[in-house]
Write the structure tokens for this entry.
Amino acid sequence: MKTISLIVISYLIGSISFARLIAKMHGKDLRQIGSGNLGATNLARACGKKWAYLCFALDVLKGFVPSISAKFILVTDSVSPAILALWLAVGAAAILGHIFPFYLKFKGGKGVATSFGVVLGIWPYYAVPGLICFVLWIIIVLTWHYISLASVIAAGLFPVVMIILTFVLQDWQFATLWPLFLAAAILSSLVIFLHRANIKRLLAGTENKVLQQKEA
């Protein structure tokens, strides 16, 4: 019952659409603006960058708080695949809540920020590779100015970085951590799938750029 309660609460926290709420505070329907996505990137178009930054931070917390809470409640001194699976279930519930909120007809955001929060909350097995991929995400955004491109590449590299770290770090054993590898592959594939429209726009050269200086 404890685990089920954690999963339900995590889903409910994840389903809070801060992008929609902030846009609504400004008298705007985010579904009718830009891409129509309920995320920080689209919110920046509707309400400005400072609100987008706030939304991103809140969406990260939606994933981080349930995941880090589950660590202290579920994880004991000995980590087993079963414990890791339960820990993952709590984090996954937050992500699914963000992507499929029940009160918005299961049509939410793409889950990148909330996924990053979950990654940070599953310390150290997800947090370390997640921070490495976040640095790569920043480099890609600053270089090519496409958030979607950075998100797709970072998501794709996340399980790869995990595998590399398993070979490098002696206390990371695949026999114990295999649920995390499986979930990383699924999560990575889901993020890329949800960006399929962005990928089409990137290939067509019509995707919106960010952090570009306006010409005088």
Observations:
- Residues 49-74 form the longest helix (26 residues).
